[in-house]
């Protein structure tokens, strides 16, 4: 069974709003107590939160469907329904949230406690007490709760570490991180022993930093060969790249210099990593032949301006200078990093004169109305209640929909679709149905609705 998952698709559904209540106050000696229906509760939100104790997306791989609580319906005696419970989903630090269909990056979650509302709960419907007014003193209807938002999201984990150890499979990266820190990755004498990034915390003097043991890279990794894309993604956030080169390899056509050039070519082809400082670690110098090879190739790397360290993860030779050199580069990167600024809230007001809807003709005396308000009002309307339908007609008339339909050339009896062409609400438009009813009937009825 897999224990580490760094890419998963999740389906989230916010809670639906509770329906409003249509209720009339009843009390002895008060035959006309008036409306007292409460409002429905708002649906719960689905929220991603960076959690320090979460290191993998495995739980979402096993249970990809998540749903927040629904709002409770309103009740009589002016009692509002309870709000639906929010669903807070913990994710590792460095999780990127994308739209699963378009690939658009929605948010990059970095920093413990950072939150992102992935789906907002639906608003609760108003009860008849909130709908009462001079024209409708005792409404016989209430508004329905709105459905919560739904989303299909792609979660990608990019490891947050200061230093990335890169190199060919079986170069000794896992042994090195185990010797530098308290991390205990799986270590064995075969390629691709490490299939997931391992993180270790290293202390060098007063400096404390994290090191990521990135799974081995091979030629073609930048094109995805050998799960290259999955591995390279974890290097993006690191401020320093350390090449771990195997000086004791017995494979033909391989040596530290060629290994370095192959890995550098893959990093360059992947992109976004050119500005990271580099360091070279010549590993396994506890083997006599490897020590000789390390002394031979050291000048070649120093000529390129690279700092070189000959180490042995087994005998721990050279580890202390290496740790302090890593700490120095990490501190330099931290000092040059611009100070973090709080995320600014962007407010985009609607243009003046924007009616909030559009009307377009799609056929002979057939029109489509789209817009946030009309479509929202459709979802709130109980079409089994004639008075609620009449209230909807009044709202559309006040918004200017009737006037816009007349200007667009609509004739009485026109077929009007509010919302999308598939799944929208269809009705026959008659201008005489707008405006308050001429004769008030029993609650729940409207004389304009046949």
Brief overview, please?
Its EC number is 3.6.5.-. With 450 residues, the chain is α/β, with parallel strands linked by helices.
Assess the beta-strand content as a share of residues: 15-25%
Task: Write the CATH architecture name of the largest domain.
Answer: 3-Layer(aba) Sandwich
Largest sheet: 6 strands, mixed
Structural class: alpha/beta
CATH fold annotation of the largest domain: Rossmann fold
Q: Largest sheet, order of strands side by side?
A: 10-11-9-12-13-14
Measure the end-to-end span: 63 Å
**Quick one: how many beta strands?**
18
Task: Give the radius of gyration.
Answer: 32 Å
What is the CATH superfamily label of the largest domain?
A: P-loop containing nucleotide triphosphate hydrolases
Number of helices: 10
Q: Roughly what is the average pLDDT, rounded to an integer? A: 82
Q: Into which percent range does the helicity of residues fall?
A: 10-25%
What is the level 1 CATH name of the largest domain? Answer: Alpha Beta
User: What best-fitting shape do the alpha-carbon axes yield?
Assistant: elongated
How many separate structural domains? 3
Following the backbone from N to C, one meets helices and strands in this order, namely EEHEEEEEHEEHEEHEHEHEHEEHHHEE
Flag low-confidence runs: 185-195, 219-229
Walkthrough of the structure:
- It is an enzyme of class 3 (hydrolase).
- Keywords: Cytoplasm, GTP-binding, Hydrolase, Magnesium, Metal-binding, Nucleotide-binding.
- This protein has 3 domains: 1-157, Distorted Sandwich (Spo0b-associated Gtp-binding Protein, Chain: A); 163-336, P-loop containing nucleotide triphosphate hydrolases (Rossmann fold); 358-433, GMP Synthetase, Chain A, domain 3 (2-Layer Sandwich).
- The longest helix is centred in the last third of the chain and has 18 residues, at 319-336.
- It has a 6-stranded mixed sheet with strand order 10-11-9-12-13-14, with helices on both faces. Strands 3-1-8-5-6 form a 5-stranded mixed sheet. The protein has a 4-stranded mixed sheet with strand order 15-16-17-18.
- It is built from 10 helices and 18 strands.
- By secondary structure, the protein is an alpha/beta fold.
